[in-house]
Amino acid sequence: MKPETACIHAVRDATHSTGAVAVPIYQSATFSHLALGQSTGYDYSRTNNPTREHVERLLTALEGGVDAMAFSSGMAAIATLMELFAPGDEIIAADDLYGGSTRLFENVSRKNGVIVRYVDTSNLSAVGTAVTSRTKAIFTESPTNPMMKVTDIAAIKEMIGHREILLIVDNTFLTPYFCNPISLGADIIVHSGTKYLSGHNDTLSGFIVVNSREIADKLRFLQNTIGAGLSPFDAFLVTRGIKTLAIRMKKAQENALAVAQWLQKQLKVTAVHYVGLPDHPAYALSQRQARGFGAMVSFSVDNVKTAHSLLNHTELILFAESLGGVETLITYPVTQTHADVPESERLVRGIDEKLLRLSIGIEAVEDIIEDLERAMR
Ligand SMILES: *Cc1c(COP(=O)(O)O)cnc(C)c1O
Rounded to two decimals, what is the model's pTM? Predict the structure, then answer.
């Protein structure tokens, strides 16, 4: 089954007792037992719920994993994942990660004795040098946000070799429609389902997908114990969103390329970061490890005035955090997504007051460009 088809048909309602085409919302906290020692397979919704199970099976199928777990947000998924680690364990993380992940590592994981060190994971030898006998995981995101650095997942896996180091990939930007990190050697995939998977900026959700039963069992235990599982209604919304994932990703990517090419021609634009541009340093690598480039574009403008003008004067494009929805959004990393990153570090990474980020939606691209053109004038 091709990915487009899998988004719609990979999982059918297991009981199929009514013939309902859409998965029902099992809005029930608890499930009754027919008799002592008997269970329908459902006991209590923190542990398992049929609507949540449906979307979990869907993510398992789309990512080619062994199991998947759904959480109330991407951060709930990552926070639960971090409970796999014990005091003294070291994790090597990408230095251009989603800001919320860094905030979790620095303020929660560190307090629990887990040491996270940051390196540019697109630089293989830097990752190799950072690995020690205490390293338990490498946590990366690709492409990164907002500088669009791409990590060679298969090469990192090869570098790890037979050492017991988990390779974790945050696949939010590319989604299973464009990239399947497990097939490249990742052990664990995380997603903010809030973004492209649900796709309509109407629900938060998160996922962990794993490639082994052993890790799945540990995480199932943690999901039930911590209790941050996805609610039935939100599971329904994500399932519905995924039905159109393929068509949304294709259109958003097509728009993103057109916008990136247009931006490159503007005198007030000094740099464009989009992995789908043939002159992006990771264009060839992206083609090798993914079926698409996604729809996230960041760019620098000539001065702060132009940046502010864009933020204040776009009309169609909404000035808002988040990404991956049908609407095109513009973000100011310096005051929004990356406000918590110390200034010195931000500047080293190129995140300054002239950098803007676009999450390109599925509107008519002429309207997106016209809006940018007017706001930039
Ligand atoms: C948004 C995001 C997260 C966090 O997900 P939430 O659903 O907002 O909790 C994690 N990683 C990436 C790459 C994201 O974009």
Answer: 0.97
